[in-house]
Automatic annotation (TrEMBL):
It comes from the Bacteria. Keywords: Aminotransferase, Pyridoxal phosphate, Transferase. Belongs to the DegT/DnrJ/EryC1 family. GO terms for molecular function: pyridoxal phosphate binding; transaminase activity. This is Aminotransferase. The active site is at K186. It holds the Pfam family DegT_DnrJ_EryC1. The modification N6-(pyridoxal phosphate)lysine is found at K186. The keyword Transferase applies. One of its GO terms (biological process) is polysaccharide biosynthetic process. Gene3D superfamilies: Type I PLP-dependent aspartate aminotransferase-like (Major domain) (3.40.640.10). InterPro entries: DegT/StrS_aminotransferase, PyrdxlP-dep_Trfase, PyrdxlP-dep_Trfase_major.
Length: 375
């Protein structure tokens, strides 16, 4: 019975196993498991075509891609970033010996507030590391103007942004570099994986070397690179997933519309964002539990958990609250009121292509019952 099935915020979308088996057999027969094999080349080309970009570099995961993107642009000093994200965003800075400078988010979009970015710039600032939170676009024009004015690099953590578009153009095709994640919980997954969207062939060449220990050829190493290569199994899965991703995005949009129609009738709950940006990929379904709702966010979270529905307080705690960051001057909560408020109110509901109607109804029923004050 579906009532006994645990529900999670997201579950990996996978193609039928029968479709994957021929790919596995080809890998087995070729005996080439990694190091830019044939599936790697095919997937890289197909992915670029799907996203509408000419140059991209595949990675073993999104975190290695973030670390390498910063290294590729030779970023040093201070980088302005958001406290409202997954920890990998800021961790990539520490791994490169860079000081994160947190600024508050816009209260409507929950993306970096451009006005706060400009106010935080110092002579040590070299870049902006912005996140398209939940796959919704940052203020691209404002960030570009700031970067041009102060000669800063812009890297977008686009981990949530696969398939999202703005003005008819892929959201990942912005900034000096954009970084994707293909982790199993993402809209598009390769089990584990990631990519850097590159502006030109020369940048891609540098990134390809950095992700392979800095090798140029068998005897030449030109940089202290890392092992960030995607293997053939993940590349093959990605190639196959591209055949299904449009259907998955359409199903996500349908489920999101059902949620919104129900939640709009429940006082004290607010869907984020409202309205939904054109070209959204519905990577997550966050709601804000406000003071008019009979119970607070954490009580609602526990009520879901008791029903075997595992919603996520995503993002809570803030990155700036973790021990390695909270001593930074920019991490003080009074400087980040919008991010703090969002972290206290947000709850992401289950949303994935295989979510069945009766299971989505279970989620909505919990929200309605709590909203009516039922125990």
């Amino acid at each position: 019975m579906s009532s006994s099935r645990p529900l999670y915020v997201t579950q990996p979308a996978l193609p039928p196993l029968r479709e994957f088996m021929p790919y596995l057999e080809q890998i087995w027969d070729a005996r080439m498991l990694t190091n830019a094999g044939p599936f790697h080349a095919r997937f890289e080309a197909a992915l670029g075509e799907y996203l509408g970009v000419e140059h991209l570099a595949l990675f073993a995961n999104g975190t290695l891609a973030l670390i390498t993107a910063l290294q590729a642009l030779r970023i040093t000093g201070e980088v302005i970033t958001t406290p409202y994200s997954f920890v990998a965003t800021a961790h990539s800075l520490l791994w490169n010996g860079i000081k994160p400078v947190f600024v508050d988010v816009d209260p409507v979009t929950l993306n970096l507030d451009p006005a706060r970015i400009e106010a935080a710039i110092t002579p040590q600032t070299t870049a902006i590391l912005a996140v398209h939170v939940y796959g919704h676009p940052c203020d691209l024009d404002a960030i570009e103007r700031i970067a041009d004015t102060y000669n800063l690099k812009v890297i977008y953590d686009a981990a949530h942004a696969f398939g999202a578009r703005v003005g008819g153009r892929s959201l990942v095709d912005h900034g000096d570099l954009s970084v994707l994640s293909f982790h199993a919980t993402k809209v598009f997954n390769t089990f584990e994986g990631g990519a850097i969207i590159c502006p030109d062939a020369r940048t891609k060449q540098r990134i390809d070397r950095l992700k392979n220990f800095g090798f140029v050829d068998e005897v030449t190493v030109v940089a202290p690179g890392i092992n960030g290569k995607m293997n053939e199994f993940c590349a093959a899965l990605g190639l196959l997933q591209l055949e299904h991703v449009d259907a998955a995005l359409a199903r996500r949009a349908e489920l999101a519309r059902i949620y919104r129609a129900a939640i709009d009738e429940i006082p004290g709950l607010r869907c984020h964002p409202d309205p939904v940006p054109e070209g959204a990929n519905h990577a997550y379904f966050p709601i804000m539990v406000e003071s008019a709702y009979p119970i607070d966010r954490d009580a609602l979270y526990q009520r879901f958990k008791a029903r075997d529905i595992h919603a996520r307080r995503y993002f809570y705690p803030l990155i700036s609250a973790f021990p390695m960051y909270r001593g930074l001057p920019s991490a003080q909560p009074d400087l980040l009121p919008n991010a703090v408020r969002a972290a206290e109110q947000v709850l992401c509901l289950p949303l994935y292509p295989d979510l069945e109607a009766e299971d989505q109804a279970r989620v909505i029923a919990v929200l309605q019952e709590a909203g009516d004050g039922d125990a």
